[in-house]
Specification:
Elements (H helix, E strand, L loop, with lengths): L1 H20 L20 H24 L4 H22 L7 H20 L8 H15 L2 H6 L10 H9 L3 H7 L3 H12 L7 H14 L3 H24 L4 H18 L4 H16 L4
EC number: 2.4.2.52
Family: Belongs to the CitG/MdcB family.
Protein name: Probable 2-(5''-triphosphoribosyl)-3'-dephosphocoenzyme-A synthase
Length: 287
């Protein structure tokens, strides 16, 4: 089982490497541009992933050995996550590259470890296994929206997600987790499973555009508000539904990257969820 846990931890790291390497990604850091980010580049993300990678196994093994409630498991994972975040910020010179992704991997790897303890299954997982892991993640985080967002008006320092909640009422990644990651369960993973074993970089870029057309991305809301989000959803829906050829899609994404960069808008929430989708695609053997 130790080797299997180590293999799964490596998959989480691989998913993050795949996500940042995908190019061109509108408004996002990729191999070619910094998108709408002025303080980070491709190599900043490499440093960040390397700093986080050792903690992925800790998330898994903590879930695997946990005895107690799932809320107690979350608190253990959150504690480990604070150390992981500190390591990330040291590696990136205090630049927040993967705060949201680190939160979700703490939850999902913890849930995965806990699930594997209850079963005798081996990789690859099935879609039913994934659904059960997402349900465990939901139970782990049911309390978050209420407890984390209570008394925000009295806090002296707020995260971007907390500001978006106060101004827009959007629960962001905490709401995704508490609801069992519906963007993964109902949108991205079914879309990816349709192309099982024939997934390439262009298809993964199509996955990103699909997420951008559907997701209530808190990064966009923080930078541009509701009008910017609605505009991006409409624009990416048009791209998604246009049935573009590979060359047409690449040209469209390159142009759209320039547009979002000029607007200073980055769909970081969609990118984080894509990395989670990549992780489960690796677990299920469809990537």
């Amino acid at each position: 089982m130790i080797k299997q846990l180590q293999r799964i931890a490596t998959m989480a790291q691989t998913a993050l490497f795949y996500e940042v390497a995908l190019s061109p990604k509108p408004g996002l850091v990729d191999r070619h541009t910094n998108g709408a980010h002025r303080d980070m580049d491709f190599f900043t993300f490499i440093k960040s992933i390397q700093a986080l990678a050792p903690y992925f196994y800790h998330y898994l093994i903590t879930g695997y050995h946990h005895e107690g409630t799932l809320k107690e498991l979350f608190e253990k994972e959150r504690t480990i996550g604070t150390f992981a975040e500190t390591a990330m910020l040291i590696a990136t010179n205090q630049i927040n590259t993967h705060k949201g992704a680190n939160f979700s991997f703490a939850v999902l790897l913890g849930a995965t470890g806990y699930y594997l303890k209850q079963t005798t299954i081996h990789l690859p997982l099935t879609s039913k296994d994934t659904a059960k892991i997402l349900n465990l993640a939901s139970t782990m985080t049911q309390h978050l929206v209420h407890e984390d967002f209570d008394n925000l008006s009295h806090k002296s320092s707020l995260s971007n997600g907390e500001r978006v909640y106060l101004t827009k009422g959007v629960t962001g990644i905490r709401g995704e987790a508490a609801n069992g990651y519906p963007a993964l369960r109902d949108l991205l993973l079914p879309f990816m499973r349709e192309k099982a074993h024939s997934i390439d970089e262009l298809f993964l870029l199509r996955c990103l555009i699909y997420l951008m057309s559907q997701l209530e991305d808190t990064n966009i809301l923080h930078r541009g508000g509701r009008p910017a989000l609605q505009q991006i959803q409409a624009e990416t829906k048009k791209i998604h539904e246009s049935n573009l050829s590979s060359n047409q899609l690449l040209r469209e994404l390159q142009c759209y990257d320039t547009i979002l960069t000029e607007r200073y808008l980055s769909p970081g929430g969609s990118a984080d969820l894509l990395s989670l989708g990549l992780f489960f695609a690796l677990l299920e053997g469809i990537l």
